[in-house]
Amino acid sequence: MYNRLLAWGMARANTVPEETIKLKECQQFATMAQLKRWLFADLHGTVLELGPGAGINLSYYPPDIDWIGIELNPFLHPYIKQEADRQGLPSINMFEGTAEQLPVADNSIDTVVSTYVLCSVTHLETCLNEVQRVLKPGGLFVFLEHVAAEPRTWERRIQEAVTPLWKTLLHNCHPNRETWKTLEEARFEWVHYQHCRLSLPVVSPQIVGKARKSLESTLPRVLALASGD
Question: Of the four listed, 88, 117, 132, 170, which is most buried by Cβ atoms within 10 Å?
Answer without folding.
Answer: 132
